[in-house]
Amino acid sequence: MSATRTAAKPTSARRPDPLDVFVWQGTDKRGKVMKGEQQAKNANALRAELRRQGITPKVVKPKPKPLFGGAGKRITPLDIAVFSRQLATMMKSGVPIVGAMEIIANGNKNPRMSTLVNTIRADIESGSSLYEALSKHPVQFDELYRNLVRAGESAGVLETVLDTIATYKENIESLKGKIKKAMFYPAMVIAVALIVSSILLVFVVPQFEEVFKGFGADLPAFTKLIVALSRFMVSWWWAVFLGIAGVIVAFVMAKKRSVAFSRFLDRMILKLPVVGQIMHNSAIARFSRTLAVTFKAGVPLVEALDTVAGATGNVVYEDAVRNIRDDVAVGYSVNMAMKQVNLFPHMVVQMAAIGEEAGALDTMLFKVAEFYEQEVNNAVDALASLLEPLIMVFLGVIVGGMVVAMYLPIFKLASTVG
């Protein structure tokens, strides 16, 4: 199906008025009560449409907005993936792109997503191409997405490209989910351990300290340390809390605003044991799948590499891909350029070489992506199994150590009496 379908009206056409959502209730020709909700310019237009369908409207009123969360949840990459697949499916079935957009907007449960789709539909009705309409929303549709759509429209294979984009986004989000899972579990356990320790120091240890004062004996060194720490927490817990919060906020802000700090973190994380290898494999998988998708869609190789650089998720690989792009631009083969950056495993370079020689670079890169995505899955599962006993030991040392410190004076007193 040709991408020219997206230009249904002249470019000079006036942008359509935004539609409101109305809830309605009425009766059909048999007297059966019908109700629903529908978008329309106004209540009178909706009444006329209902009568045309053989329904006598009784109640037509704007849909009330909820008191909380009226704007809806934020738009996620998975929302964009679902939108892409729905649009591709309907266009393959012969539904015009404007009609498909209307169906998707009306059926979406997220108000923000519905508004976004309606805005895109209005731009297309005004004469814009899908690429031009999406370019007005760079947060939701990144450069990679827009370039793929532009290539699909130019080649007349927009439906196929949209389906490929949906699959790509689903795979990438699944990969991101695995990485987050590997990081989230130990972070949460450490946070819980610190919270439990703080509660013990602020509320439990002072009770034991009152008991110890009646012993009239010198406390063990370990117990003195815990008591001193408890006194500090009781007096300065607010400063500790503000300090931790300040460090977290400063870290997040520095990562977002400081390019140098962000690059430093990306380099350091690749050097961590176990986790570093997972991040290496993740970057290779994202590079391979993204380049395969863009190249398959017909995006020129140099332009595709430029887009892929930002999709690797790590500055080390981003710099490497930009070097590959520069080498390819002056005539080097992809596999030779990959070999020069000395970052990609031998298997990846050889698969790229075979793909270039056979004229099936995208197919080989898809296979590389699948292999490294599976490697990430296996590594994350292995990491979870490895962390469980280490976390148990960590919790035992922190919480158990405090309990032992509190009971040491009692044991000492008992042995003295005995």
TrEMBL record:
It is a multi-pass membrane protein. The keyword Cell inner membrane applies. It comes from the Bacteria. The keyword Membrane applies. GO terms for biological process: protein secretion by the type II secretion system. The chain crosses the membrane at residues 184-205, 235-254, 390-410. GO terms for cellular component: plasma membrane. Keywords: Cell inner membrane, Cell membrane, Membrane, Transmembrane, Transmembrane helix, Transport. Residues 83-206, 287-409 form the Type II secretion system protein GspF domain. It is found in: Cell inner membrane. InterPro entries: GspF/PilC (IPR003004), T2SS_GspF/T4SS_PilC_CS (IPR001992), T2SS_GspF_dom (IPR018076), T2SS_GspF_sf (IPR042094). Its main location: membrane. Belongs to the GSP F family. This is Type IV pilus assembly protein PilC. It comes from Vulcaniibacterium tengchongense.
